[in-house]
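Let's practice the habit of predicting before peeking. Look at the sequence and jot down your guess about where helices and strands might fall. Then scroll down.
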Amino acid sequence: MNFLLSKLSKLKANKSNQPSDFKGRSELKFLISFGEYEILRQRFKAALYLDPNSNALSGDYHVSSLYFDDNYQTALNSKISGEYLRRKFRIRAYNYDISTTNLECKAKMGEFVSKQKHRLSKDEYYQMLKGDYSFINERYEDTVLETFSRASIILGLRPTVVVDYQREAYIYPFGNVRLTFDKELRCSLGGKDMFSDETEFLTVLNNEVILEVKYDEYLPSHITALFSGLNLNKQSVSKFVYCTEKVLEVKHNVFK
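Done guessing? Here is the structure:
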């Protein structure tokens, strides 16, 4: 049986068990070869719509994310251990444009994901980069800021790593489907400023691509059929984990 079809039947059963206050989308992730990427992108082009935010020539766009964690690496360890309920904070921007910067809280319940965000000004971004969250007290009514503030007080959140990649995204309105290819994954080495030319980056994934399948209540059958003939296996793929482990590996090799 097609993997996606068998997985979807389980997701539909599980979704009824979600708490009513958790507004989650289904999310499946796969680590695929470049050859599989080329096959799928041709199928996606024929059946889906390219994300309107994409570059007209390259067909993709750039994503930068600055992740937060604490001294105990709670966000990292909860992901690696596969905790059913987990949460992480990041600042995300697109195409190196600081006006697109948002603070995001991504919560996960099993294979369902919920995301809230708050637009940051340039000054607020640089305050957070320095670990100064004092402006949040002036805007405490915002849910994301309030959640971040409480987590920061309890855990001592701090910026840890910049995750950087090119995203090629396809959409389909029925089911609110979004299929993405994340390519050329890199992580920052030392520096934390996403917009600085002085921030150094290391290649994390070169010949592999991360495929993400996201949708609301259902995935149309003709989209599921696009994956036929490929032996794709769902994996616990995390760009944050890949990049953090790469940085830790480099630091270990330097100081051993």
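How did you do? DSSP finds seven helices and ten strands in the chain.
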